[in-house]
Amino acid sequence: MSTERYVVAITGASGSEYALRLIEILVEAGHEAYVVISAGGLVTLRHEVEPERLHQVLALATEVFDDADIGASIASGSFVFDGLAVVPCSMNSLARLNAHMADTLITRAAMVAMKERRRMVVVPREMPMATGTLEQMARLSGLGVIIAPASPGFYHRPQSMEELVEFVAAKTAACLGVRSWRLKAWKANQLCDT
Ligand SMILES: Cc1cc2nc3c(=O)[nH]c(=O)nc-3n(C[C@H](O)[C@H](O)[C@H](O)COP(=O)(O)O)c2cc1C
Predict the structure, then answer these.
(1) Contact 63, 34 (CB under 8 A)
(2) What residues line ligand 1, using a CB cutoff of 6 Å?
(3) What is the distance of C-alpha 107 from the center of its chain?
(4) What average pLDDT does the chain have?
(5) With 70 as the cut, is the pLDDT of residue 122 above it?
(6) What distance in angstroms lies between residue 75's CA and the mean position of ligand 1's atoms?
(7) 64 CA distance to ligand 1 centroid (A)?
(8) Residue 38 annotated in ligand binding
(9) CATH code for the domain in which residue 55 is found
(10) What is the number of structural domains in the chain?
(11) CB under 8 Å to 161, separation ≥6 — which residues?
(12) What is the rounded (10 degree) CA torsion for 83, 44, 56, 51?
């Protein structure tokens, strides 16, 4: 299996643990994870995640970039990465992606993904959503961006927060083209089997 490169952009929506688990899944699958965290993403991470957990996961990354570092490798189309996930994606970042802004490393790397026609997944988290946000998501979807809302299913009867997180993180990985053995395919009779 060849090693692939994935960019994980963490922005300031709730659900930063989804990103941490996604990084683990990518690395467990033998891939490289390039991580960028927005200023808002840092704030939510500090609210939601223990510092030890954050450090432990960031240590798995091939590189962790500052969002202000627009000269970083992933800002250039010549640095080939296989996919990019904005997870979780704030409504602010969603609007900026929709506007094709490129003034931060996250928006620039996303621009690269779009112009180079690379796989890009956006995991928005907001409730409820403004009409403008829904329109922006529809537009990005039409441009080939996969919109994968952070909405875990319950049909597999999750027993813990970890299992709920796993659902969203593994689905996000699958949208990038990376399969996690933990994401069980639905079998119609699986509940009858137990
Ligand atoms: C604890 C916390 C939770 C937040 N949750 C969300 C959220 O779920 N969705 C969202 O769009 N914004 C949320 N915000 C607001 C964003 O962080 C804020 O709009 C920020 O400017 C986003 O910046 P960024 O897109 O550059 O990361 C939250 C902020 C805080 C402090």
Answers:
(1) yes
(2) 11-14, 38-41, 43-44, 47, 90-93, 125-126
(3) 14
(4) 94
(5) yes
(6) 23
(7) 20
(8) yes
(9) 3.40.50.1950
(10) 1
(11) none
(12) 170
The per-residue pLDDT for 49 is 98
* Nearest Cα residue to atom 14 of ligand 1: 13
Ligand 1 atom at minimal distance to the Cα of residue 96:
25
Q: pLDDT tens digit string along 37-90?
A: 999 999 999 999 999 999 999 999 999 999 999 999 999 999 999 999 999 999
For residue 93, is pLDDT > 90?
yes
- For the segment 89-111, the average pLDDT, to the nearest whole number, is 98
Contact 74, 105 (CB under 8 A): yes
Residue 52: count of CB within 10 angstroms of its CB? 8
Q: How far apart are the CA of 41 and the centre of ligand 1, in A?
A: 7
Domain assignment of residue 10, given as a range:
5-193
80: its two tokens: 């080939």
102 is in an annotated binding site: no
φ/ψ of 139, rounded to 5, equals -65, -50
Q: Which 3 state secondary structure label does DSSP give 117?
A: coil
User: Which pLDDT tens digit goes with each residue over 146-155?
Assistant: 999 999 999 9
Q: What's the pLDDT at 179?
A: 86
CA of 43 to the centre of ligand 1 (A): 8
What pLDDT sits at residue 193?
43
Residue nearest to atom 9 of ligand 1 (CA): 13
